[in-house]
Amino acid sequence: MSSLIRKLLAGLSSAPDGPTIALLSDFGERDTYVGTMRAVIASISPQARVIDITHQVRPQSTQEGAYALWSAYRYFPRATIFAAVVDPGVGTDRDILILESDDFMFVAPDNGILDLVATEITQRSGHALRVGEPGGKWRR
What we know:
It contains four helices and six strands, in the order αβαβαβββαβ. The protein is an alpha/beta fold. It has one domain: Rossmann fold (3-Layer(aba) Sandwich).
């Protein structure tokens, strides 16, 4: 987990009710990856409420992940942080994107998984930031 994400979660851990964090991945549920991700979140922010959207996205299918995220996000409480991890380039130095709106925050690799959400949210006056480029614009 990047130090930026750790700082984000640590800052949120001071909230009395804790943040709501939604997880989406292609990890499946036969191994320890989902549990490990949830354990890291709990160690950083014990009061966080973690909701699993799905971990059954077809492996490396960023289009399927993008659709699942887009179809689910609007039903979550305001201020939810979405972590989407479907990445054919896992282990590479791919950038992490943070998409912020007035209602939500999305964290995902720069591989297209945020495209549907970004299109919808930026049309409603949200903005996107590329890690390392504060104030950057959404680019695809």
